[in-house]
Amino acid sequence: MTQLEDQHELALARAPQRSAVPLEMIRAQRTAAAAFTLACSVSGLEDKEIYLALEIDAGYFSNIKKGKATLQADLVAHFCEVVGNTIYPEWGAFQVGCTLVMVKTEAERRAELAEQRAIAAEAENRLMRQLLQGRATA
Asked: How far is residue 113's CA from residue 119's CA, in Å, rounded to a whole number?
């Protein structure tokens, strides 16, 4: 591991709080800066913990919160990981009449399908046992 990777791991010492925020509250934010600030606040982390983890300047971070700058699009996913929520991109999606949906990976889809098949097979197996027991006693 390089020295930079070590520093990156140390920048965020605490895990963010993962609180459910009502969609209405997110959509009620008037600006991107307000949504960004809400995302930061809900995390329970100090600003310094967030901007160090994102490897951005404290002044630039402050300007994002004031609405004088925006978070670079390529940092949004990392920001969401750091703060433990998707408030900021959810607000952005709402601005164009959309909402966020969690995308399932192919592995998740296959696992879900396999689970459905297993449940169906168990039900069929249970029915067959009941039928066989009924014939054995008849």
From this structure: 10
**Closest CA relative to residue 61, chosen from 11, 132, 7:** 11
User: Is the pTM for the entire model greater than 0.85?
Assistant: no
- DSSP for the chain, please give it: --HHHHHHHHH--SPPP-----HHHHHT--SHHHHHHHHHHHHT--HHHHHHHHT--HHHHHHHHHTSS---GGGHHHHHHHHT--HHHHHHHHHTT----PPPPHHHHHHHHHHHHHHHHHHHHHHHHHHHHHHHH-
Residue 21 near residue 38 (C-beta atoms within 8 A): yes
Q: What is the pLDDT of residues 80-118, one digit of tens each?
A: 999 999 999 999 999 999 999 888 888 888 888 899 999
Half-sphere exposure of 1 (CA within 13 A, CB side): 8
CB 11 within 8 Å of CB 51 = no
